[in-house]
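Hi P.,

Sorry for the delay on this. The queue was packed all week, but I finally got your sequence through. Input first:
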Amino acid sequence: MKKTITAAAAALALPMAALAQTSVAMYGIMDVSLQHLRFGSTGTRPGASLTALTSDTSRLGFRGTEDLGGGMKAYFKLETGFQADTGMQTSATAFFNRETYVGLAGAGLGSVQLGSQWAPGLLMALKVDPFMRFGVGGQYTLLQGSRGYQNRYDNAVQYISPTFGGVTARLLGAVGEGAATGSSYSGSVEYAGGPLFLGAVYDQVHATPASLGLGGDPVVSRTLSLGATYDFSVAKVGAWYQTNRVGGLSDVNGYLLGLTVPVGAGEIRASYSHRSATNASASLLAIGYGHYLSKRTQLYANVGRLSNSGVAAFRMGPATSEQAAAGLPFPGQDTTGYQFGIRHFF
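Then the structure:
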């Protein structure tokens, strides 16, 4: 009997030891805000207003790592977005609608990730945009999309290099899987050293003509984005520039200027972003303040002014679906937005 118990304990020892080297964590953000929007009148349209309780970037995720020994590790991430104001999923067709990937990393070798992944351009935008792409001041409103940097790549393989002298590179390819649009690619190089950050991203996306308002065969959309920030301790300044080219169409260019100023237990954020396109230019000026009640809970207030010209009808986040349901704004209609909310990190 003693021998049997000893053998059973030895058999269990290896899997239990391996299990001790694995870590899995659940995390997320709950973000709910009250947003009031005022739409200016145009020559043919009257003014309007809209008030909504909305959720912005609320998410639930799971991530884990396993130590494989020899400096190697396996890891994964599963993340889904949801509307904290209604409990509904952000996507009606995908449960894990943000990132889903598995990867391997080796000491001094970098890492490889397979799955649905944020684009290098989005990750760089988070480092430059004072609003970190949320709220009425988020720069994604004007600079992301069919004629801007890519948001996410599905069916993607990405290599992330080790950091040498503050420099990190990313190379990503999204396979076409037989679709007419074919494969898409993205790559970035970033430098972070002391108070300085510099980055460059190139996206080459095979886009459907419908997404660009065209007919015919799929086209190639190429976007070059450059970003930089410098932290003076008393204030952090940032700048972003991008240019998009599609054969047969006029170029679309954009830029952002940003400022973050720490104040006590919070920070003041301000930005100005502009998108330049033929008869469809737009700009967004925003300022806000976020106050941390603790490391996990923040109260914030933002105000922004989005100006549309020509046929441009860009919406101010985050209440974009509510605006779409109301058919607002009309082409050339400006929007002023006020937002008061709370974010809790867990």
